[in-house]
Design a protein that fits this description.
cca-adding enzyme, domain 2, 10% strand, Beta Polymerase, domain 2
């Protein structure tokens, strides 16, 4: 007879029916053990499994029938990459934002893949692959304009190993300088920043691996760090900016444990390479959440390390022209992004740096005695150079920004018939938009000038001729009133002869 007490807990419902109708060999029989294992996997293993990693990070494996992700929601090229890696004997997962956004009902911008294949092994599998990165080697699989980023699963740091190139490197502040350490999926999850990004879609069985309660944090709309927040921020201070960006983008709240250290560690952003910060600023302010990101960055003290010239003016005059300009720029940028209109970094930097430029030009004019026009030209180089120390603005954007600045000085001098030629300047439209924003911030004479140009730009050909002639007439009247009458020549008096 079979020992039901030992066997029945491991069998599903249909297996118990078979057990009741027939006799089977002893549980010690290898054949029976295989049948029992098969029945257990077939009937019972489709339930969500909860485990923990070696370091205590929780793991939840959700089978295909219990989640809503479908391959039809993924990029066709991402699926190609996943299947080729899988069929070549490697483990392959869709990871991070792609999985997260699909679960939230959003359209992912990118589909990233992780695998246990090394970058060199990935390159052998894909002819359209290029390896990039020094801090952490990545493989970019290029399908025309679509690029699928493939990373090797990261591992834990080991201080003493034979292969030096596989060891991570940090600086004195704890920031990672090189991180080419490979490992398992569990180790990779422990190395990720936020729980909502520690989500892996396994192409082998279509299950989801959720680490650190990532699925629960998605439901509760919480941004939570994996590991000790202080250590993780020191490893990569950009994570503080990412926390802000995800919170506004996904309409989530930053967990208190992740939020509190930011106030103290915000100055670490000064140590980040300026070229990397340029890309992060694009993600923060050109994603449709510029106004919310700006507000949250100022709240956490993250804006000052990146824009020191602008922040000093905000501190001196919280309700001044600079504050009004920044609010208008952020709101205007959000409107254009949501309307799917073009936005350019050249205009963005020209606008937010206009008042630091004006202050610097006034200082130069006062110190050197230069004309205001020459002082502005000198100040442009100074302001742009100082800003590029924290955010490396490419020349293809810094040069047009200077053109936009120069045109601000010509609006008053080009009213009248000169306006017809002035509006043909390649950067006129961007300069005109900045003039309108200045009018909102300053009012007064700038608002009057902006109103004249707005009527001219929006008017038809006949209306423009009338506006231009009236401006010329007004200009002649002003000039005639400003002419000075010459003093009569003094008559020479002759002394009488003695």
């Amino acid at each position: 007879m079979i020992n039901r007490i030992l066997i029945e807990p491991y069998l599903g419902y249909h297996s118990r029916l078979i057990l009741n109708r027939s006799s089977v060999p002893s549980s010690r029989c290898p054949i029976f053990r295989r049948i029992s294992k098969f029945c257990k996997q077939f009937f019972d293993d489709n339930q969500t499994a909860e485990e923990t990693t070696q370091t205590g990070l929780s793991l939840e494996v959700v089978p295909r029938k219990d989640h809503s992700i479908s391959r039809r929601q993924m990029s066709e090229n991402a699926i190609k990459v996943l299947y080729r890696l899988h069929k070549s004997g490697f483990k392959a997962y869709l990871v991070g934002g792609g999985v997260r956004d699909i679960l939230l009902g959003l359209q992912p911008k990118d589909f990233d893949v992780v695998t246990n294949a090394t970058p060199e092994e990935i390159k052998k599998l894909f002819r359209n692959c290029r390896l990039v990165g020094r801090r952490f080697r990545l493989a970019h699989i290029v399908f025309g304009r679509d690029v699928i980023e493939v990373a090797t699963l990261r591992g834990h740091h080991v201080e003493h190993v034979e292969h030096v190139e596989q060891v991570s490197k940090t600086n004195a502040e704890g920031r990672l300088l090189r991180d080419n350490v490979y490992g398992t999926i569990d180790e990779d999850a422990e190395r990720r920043d936020f729980t909502v990004n520690a989500l892996y879609y396994d192409i082998s069985d279509f299950s989801i691996h959720s680490y650190g309660g990532g699925l629960e944090d998605l439901k509760s709309r919480t941004i939570r760090l994996i590991g000790d927040p202080n250590t993780r921020y020191r490893e990569d201070p950009v994570r503080m900016l990412r926390a802000v960006r995800f919170a506004t983008k996904l309409n989530m709240t930053i967990d208190k444990g992740a939020a509190d250290p930011i106030y103290e560690l915000a100055p670490l952003l000064k140590d980040i390479p300026a070229a990397r910060m340029y890309e992060e600023i694009l993600k923060l302010f050109f994603n449709g959440q510029a106004a919310n990101n700006f507000t949250m960055m100022r709240e956490f003290g993250l804006f000052a390390p990146l824009f020191p010239l602008v922040d000093s003016q905000l501190v001196d005059e919280p309700d001044g022209f600079t504050a009004k300009m920044l609010q208008a720029v952020m709101e205007n940028t959000d409107i254009r992004v949501r309307a799917e209109k073009t936005v350019t970094p050249a205009f963005f930097y020209a606008a937010i740096l206009w008042y630091p430029l004006s202050q610097r030009a006034d200082d130069i004019a006062l110190e050197s005695g230069l004309s205001l026009y020459d002082a502005y030209n000198a100040a442009m180089g100074d302001v742009m150079e100082q800003q590029c120390r924290t955010i490396s603005i490419p020349r293809r954007f810094s040069t047009p920004a200077k053109d936009i600045w120069q045109l601000q000085l010509r609006f008053d001098r080009n009213q009248g018939t000169r306006a017809f030629k002035f509006i043909e300047h390649p950067k006129f439209r961007a300069a005109y938009d900045l003039l309108l924003l200045r009018a909102l911030a300053e009012g007064g004479s700038v608002a009057k000038s902006a109103a004249w140009w707005k009527s001219f730009v929006e008017g038809g050909e006949e209306q423009r001729n009338v506006i231009a002639r009236s401006a010329n007439k007004g200009s002649r009247n002003r000039n005639s009133n400003q002419r000075r009458r010459r003093k009569p020549a003094s008559k020479k008096t002759t002394k009488p002869a003695e």
